[in-house]
Amino acid sequence: MLESERALSGPFPIRAVIDSCVFPNTRRWLIPITQLAAGGFVLPIWSPLILAESNRVLTWLWIKRNGKETKDAAWNRCSAAAKFMFSQLTLYFRVVDDCPPQADLWKDSPPDEWDSPLWAAAQRSEAQFIVTSNLQDGPPEGADGVQEYAGIFMAHPDVFLTLIDRMVSHYAEASFLDSLPATAPVPSPEHADLYRAILAETYRDMRHSKR
User: Fold this and answer.
1) SS3 label, residue 9
2) What is the 3-state secondary structure (H, E, C) of 146-175?
3) Which end of the chain is more exposed for a tag (fewer CB within 10 A), N or C?
4) Residue 37 β-bridge partners
5) DSSP secondary structure letter of residue 11
6) In terms of Cα–Cα distance, which of 79, 52, 51, 83 is closest to 66?
7) Is the separation of the CB atoms in 24 and 61 below 8 Å?
8) CATH code of the region 3-209
9) Phi-psi region of 134 (alpha: psi -120 to 50; beta: other; left: phi over 0)
10) Chain centroid to CA 165
11) Residues of the chain predicted below pLDDT 50
12) CA–CA separation, 162 vs 205, rounded Å?
């Protein structure tokens, strides 16, 4: 069993679909999420659409950083970089199908039709979170500032990392982590209230810090 697939019983690992917008922000978001996956705290999920979009964006950014060079040697370097990145991520990320039929959403016509496969992947993988910086097209915020639909929370990567950090700190203080057995990961819908409470607390703290 991979380290990333061992459940820490309680709320871990948290299943999260990682949107393609996370991948270009390697140091800020992708590496911390991958490190959490290595520790068994997160089970990151991607889909064919996320893979395709991530590849497109990362390839374009690589070309821009390298002076738009398109010679064979440049493409070989690009290919080598992509293969190295994939070799690291595939240790922890799991792929779930996002093909039609698409998921039912909170409205008949979502603002961005390409969000439907994202939600299909989240529902099929029984994810608790979609992690994305594109929150404007997600479900409406509740009174607590939390975006949630059908038991799936949508969170900005910064907020998601804060949520995991607070949960890990909470259980570590309770001497929780050291005593847990390694068992097969299971969805933990019973922890939805916990996720919402910590998300709401995080949003409150963020609002206060901006004052």
Assistant:
1) coil
2) CEEECCEEEECHHHHHHHHHHHHHHHHHCC
3) C
4) none
5) S
6) 79
7) yes
8) 3.40.50.1010
9) beta
10) 14
11) 1-8, 175-187
12) 11
Point out which residues pair with 155 in neighbouring strands. Answer: 131
Cα 26 from Cα 207, distance rounded (Å): 26
Spatial neighbors of 5 by CB under 8 A, at least 6 apart, are 13, 40, 43, 184, 185
Cα–Cα nearest to 23, from 13, 15, 31: 31
CA distance 12 to 177: 10
* E strand intervals along 10-110: 14-18, 42-46, 94-95
Backbone phi and psi for residue 117, each to the nearest 5 degrees, phi listed first: -60, -30
Residue with tokens 């819908």: 189
Q: Which residue has the tokens 């969170």?
A: 155
pLDDT tens profile 42-84: 999 999 999 999 888 888 888 888 777 778 888 888 888 888 8
Q: What's the residue count for the chain?
A: 211
Identity of the amino acid at 44: P
Element (H, E) at 129: strand 129-131
Q: Which two tokens stand for residue 205?
A: 């703290």
Rounded distance between C-alpha atoms, residue 205 and residue 24, angstroms: 27
Please report, for residues 69, 75, 77, 79, the alpha-carbon distance to residue 72 in angstroms, rounded to integers and kept in the order given. Answer: 9, 5, 9, 10
